[in-house]
Task: structure prediction
Amino acid sequence: MTAPRPPVAGWDEFPRQYARTRRFSLGAPRSFAVGDDGSRVAFLRSRDGADPVGCLWVLDVASGEQRCVADPRALGHAAIEAAALPPEERARRERARESAGGIVAYAADPALTHAVFALAADAYTVDLRDGGEPNRLPVDGPVIGPRLDRGAARVAFVRAGALHVVDRDGGSERRLAGDDDDDVTWGLPDFVAAEEMGRLRGFWWSPDGRRLAVSRVDTSPVQRWSLSEPADPQRPATVLAYPAAGTANATVSLHVVDLAGDRVVVDWDAEAMPYLVDVVWSPHGPLTVVVQARDQRLVRVLGVDPASGATTVLSEQRDAAWVELGAGVPRWLPGGRLVTTVDDADTRRLAVDGEAVTPPGLQVRRLVSADTAGLTFTAWGDDPTAVAVWTLPLDGSGPRRLTPADGMADAAASAGVTVLVTAELDQPGATVTVDSAAGQTPVTSFAERPLLTPNVRIARLGERMLPAALLLPSGCNPDEPTDGAPLPVLLDPYGGPSAQRVVRSGNAHVASQWFADAGFAVLVVDGRGTPGRGPAWERTVAGDLATAPLDDQVDALHACAAAHPGLLDLERVAIRGWSFGGYLAALAVLRRPDVFAAAIAGAPVTDWTLYDTHYTERYLGLPTDRPDAYRRSSLLDDAASLRRPLLLIHGMADDNVVAAHTLRLSRALLEAGRAHTVLPLSGVTHMTPQETVAENLLRLQLDFLRDTLGASRQ
Result:
């Protein structure tokens, strides 16, 4: 290995680019929908890589023409500041981790003839076929979550916690369901459904457009927390209904509501199965509801009689630890067969009417589509750092891979048309193609190319073959003899359940490369509990979120050093992370000061009794039943062990991991007489979307690492 060079061209400008482009997401096409006749594809995209204003586009499959059908600027809207959004929309964007502006979501009928979207307090419809101008719905705002029925005749939406319906041309608006109670909403998801289950909606049209299934959420049982803005003491505190572990959730019920406002309650044992996970109302099967037990060891798929609300069990899964919720399921095939997932042979598999149809070893990530041609899905194979798109005909011929095995891929599909989104480790961004009988049509991306190119190696480290990415300064080769001093090391993990950092996508590693080009060897490790290696691997963290994730970071570090003698300076090892990664960083410096010389913990969970019910109880159970699990996983009792530099960073407006986590740990550290640094971020949420905040956070973290590790300021 040659000695590290000074930072490469563009290094100093990178933090601004990273922040300005929203981590290179702006200008990239996303949110694809394929019409059920295969003639059109709709998607969102801003007009360049630094433009935060999302526009709605349509691609004609036969000609390949791409045209913008709705531009917020042409409608008199620019990027809408979060403060100007209705609170329900701000909450939805925070749950969805949405950092852009303009059109950030849309809903269309299955044939993609029309679409509806919200801008600030207004809603617009647009004909996707003729290129006509969008029409504003002549209704009072704010309009939340508008959705068309299958025939594109009516739009349903939420306003002031009540569900409304209006004809697409604007006539005959009527309120269908509402309680006039500030604690009750109709048609919106509850907090844990949106944050932890991925359910961002609360109503579903019937196939004939004459009824809707509507969730009713009553938050009166949920404890209230206050989030204040210390930098603006005149601003009233925000009161948040937050269901922390072991406390009451919102009461959620489902109702079938017709266009006259008549209601039928859907009847299931909500005391035993309180979580409403998902609702599917397909023309190929009955109204279908997924419910889950509080301890998450039982999930049932129920068929519903809309006339009476009576339910029957169509499918159920049980697990001694927890049932992992499948993405994209359940779904009905034409002819009435039910597609779900099952955990079998240590593999998450697709099942049709309860019978597994995908092979052992192919770990299903998400069902993309299910139609007469078969199933399209994404999955991990032998390599947990890569995800491919697969298709499975239902004639018994076996699955076929549609994208390379050494990249990261996703898809949208219908009627023989498949949108393939593929990323590679040695390429920036992602490539999007529309694959149909007419051939392959590329979808242009306007995303900026990162100023830095990751110098990254993917490896499997240690006895557990832990997936790892090693990033070195540009021009450094770990396989060449070293003629310089070993490099200080920065571990840069997430390291917790439900997320990966070690993936074969170039853009996933550009921020780590910025630290590498500052003179660090950066090591990113996915340990036990992370997805991609099967149910047993995921469930190794049951009852203890601390021990296995931390041990795996340490083991991978030592295995990497052994594989590259003289490359890593094990006397100068730091760790940084955000959210679970922030928890892991603080945990590392508290419990393994023999390994870690410094830590940066961003938005860390420090006391799991302060985190939400659905996530926390999945792994640790109820605090009253498993106090030992909460003690093992908490950081507060370790405060007196701190003897290394620790920087705690937290957004004061974070309503997911509230700032109390950092403040409680800081208080415990102060009471133990342990010096540390706290950086409060005024007005910042869990996402840190503000450009100047995102840019300067990178620079401040680097300064902290240089000061604490004695790293060179090249």
Notes: The chain is about 15% helix and 35% strand. The first helix runs from residue 14 to 20. The mean pLDDT is 95.
